[in-house]
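INFO  loader      accepted 1 record
INFO  loader      residues=263
INFO  predictor   begin
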Amino acid sequence: MKRTKLASLLIAAAICLPSLAMAESVAIVNGTPIDKTKVDQVIAQIIKNSNGQAQDTPALREKIKNSLINQELALQEAKRRGLDKSADVQDQIAQASNSILQEALAADIIKQHPIDDAAVKTRYDAFAAKISGSTDMHLQQIVVTSEADAKKVVADLKKPGARFDQLAKARSIDPAAKESGGEMGILNSTNMPPVLADGVKSLKAGQVTVISAGNLWHVVKLVEARPAKPAPLDQLKPQIVRQLQEEEIDQAITSLRTQAKIQ
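INFO  predictor   done
INFO  writer      dumping tokens
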């Protein structure tokens, strides 16, 4: 009697197992299940990337489920057409695999060499000391191909109602300058190319100068100048951490090169 009861329990458990497995799938596409864990992973990544602004909702889960279904259908169709056997596709897969492995190595190097607050503070202090006494300059430029063109731009800027941004869009040969109206942004005097730093160091706000660099001529305007002041440590910390992490990765690769046999 006990044996019969035990057998019945085992049979019932065996019958229930498929349904339990099914419960972990959000969909089955032509016999291929899409696991709920995939949806969970995508949602977790979305919430992380949104800094917590995104919420785990039924609507979001439904959207992700449909996206995964479409992905699975596309994969199945690609394989049905034999595209996975294509030499070009195989090469792209290999390249993608190599990229993933390199990223995994970089992540592992960073994990083994965590950046502490002391290292961040040391780098920040060095940056602050470097820009101490320097100047932040808001610059604009118009790039032309000859000194004569540069002088004509300067003359046009002196005309009543002339606007630098409009002249930059009309006359500059630099695509970026044409699009932005000549904006160079705010540059620190310690980080400028020497020819630029020398050319603008004596300018006052609103003044322009002509700088020759190679075969090009730059009409540069100083919009504003102010003593440089480093941003707070908390604001720069993420940037400094990334910089130090990249240096750790570079050092690790350099070490590998010194140990490798390269012919």
